[in-house]
Structures
1.
Amino acid sequence: MTPPLYEAVNVLDAQSLLAAFGVLGVGVVMFAETGLLIGFFLPGDSLLFTAGLLCTGAADRAVKLSLAPLLVAAAVGALAGAQCGYLIGRKAGGALLARSRSQRLHDGVKRAEELLERYGYAKAVVLARFVPVVRTVLNPMAGALDVPLRTFTLWQVVGGLVWSVGLTLAGYALGSSIPNVDRYLLPLVALIIVVSLVPLLSEVLRARRSAEAKGGDE
């Protein structure tokens, strides 16, 4: 007998979410993680990668997804979520962030502030997509800090498409080229998360080198 849905679904596990909700679940999670502060704990990176892998159509997989609808759902959810988060931040200011008691969320706020101050609006909005928690809090913060709407919209679309479509296609490519890739899913997801942080780490290193060069010239 199949257990009730609320007992069967683990919202922290990508495969569980996909088995229960399929493509629709991907869109909803993307929206919640990037647009609603309560979604900061959701597994965005691993969900996109795993969903792409499950589009490869191997016969032994219980869950099978279609690539085209998945890409649309992931992109729409990610873009609409970020825009919603921005509008919430613009209306509510920092009140919602201040009310939260989550230390992880407040740590994300600090990192988001550092990104905005160090790299400027455009680069910060793009880089934030690749950092868990930061991609949740930066959007309402951008609204609260009155980042120009056109600037935010342009760069959140660029970052959102690269992140959502890129990770999904990465999962699809690996699932299509490596036999029984499911066996290596957990280490692959960990690797994808690490790789997604490379743009941010490279910018941090570049900023440090620039600061050291300026210090040496003085």
2.
Amino acid sequence: MPVLVITGTGTEVGKTVVTAAVAATALAAGRSVAVLKAAQTGVGPGEPGDAAEVARLAGSVTTAELARYPEPLAPATAARRAGRTPVHPHEVAEAAAKLATEHDLVLVEGAGGLLVRFDAAGGTLADAARLLSAPVLVVAPAGLGTLNTTELTARELRSRGLDLAGIVIGSWPEAPDLAARCNLADLPDAAGAPLLGAVPAGSGALAPAAFRAAAPHWLAPLLDGSWDAEAFRVREAPGAF
């Protein structure tokens, strides 16, 4: 897959750290990687955004950012309030396609969830994925409430004819509660797609070298890693099924 679109079931679910883990794992497998942040919000001029954070953690990746708006809002709202030109899905698709001619893998990280609006016409990351014919990886939280938002996201992807590559848990707790443990089996059932990884909580605070060494162990072979969903369930959730 030359382009992989990464979205979340909402905000603050670990998209950027998961994107970094996917990038680091692909780099370790010998692939060249580019990371495209379609619209960065909540970051001022000169401050490092999500793409820079991915590069810090993952290593030698090409980064690109199409637009930046200072307020931490949906891109369409942030662009309007800042009096700036919004990003449109076709621009995201064009930028990703160009990067794909020069890299083995292009990761397109969205803002918030799948249907967060980029522009006043209602363009979304889903529209960019459709233009690219690219699979979508969904980052979901571990605990209570995640099944509903994950299934809604999966249904929306399928209603648009988009390929749901799988689900990655963006922040797996050190001491998971019953809901999180049960969700290891329930998440793939709700999504109708495989669980492709679980990134430990706090991984973004690791030193870059430690992050890069550990990342392949958090992701499944489809994402170039060695993580095994069944072995993880047996270890992390004994007696939950």
3.
Amino acid sequence: MPAPLRPRPAPAVELLPKIIMGVDPGTQIMGYALIEVRGQRVDVLCYDVINMKALGSNHAVKLKRIFDRMLELIDEYLPDELAIEAPFFGVNVQSMLKLGRAQGVAIAAALSRQIPYVEYAPTKVKQSVTGSGNSTKEQVAHMLRQTLKLPPIAEASTFLDATDALAVALCHHYQKGNNNTVSGGKSWGKFLADNPERLGASTGTGKKKAPAKS
């Protein structure tokens, strides 16, 4: 009688692929990026911007554009977690209000697909990527090109928002989802603790769709 087959061990949790979506909120241009993490290896799937300058001054139309595009990206890449930059505190109250709405719509799109989110302060993102919380956008982009071996970016003035979003995603990877410094942020563990009924829905076993080659 043949010996019973022994179950194969499950792969180590740290080697399971995870897709992180990073977002740099904006009311004119919103940056987004998606990375796949497997252990310490990071592969950039895409990074780009949602350009809303041509939509005029109707803020509601821009919010709908953000929501629709976020859902398109989520359905295409199936991210496991969303990392989003917190709005900075400025002197223009109306600008802060609009920026907060844009951030909220991006978060709502993720939650509508049962994707947990974590919020990071801008200085935290810069410090994680460059070692200094006072780095400029150009310095962040330069460090990302070195760290992730990205090709030169011709449209630097436009794509600095995209590289900012990439920095948010990389910051989340460095933090391993443990962010307790920003009020309102939700770590993966806290999300599951607060919403145990979503455990099965949020950890589906469906295979990730391979991104289209650009």
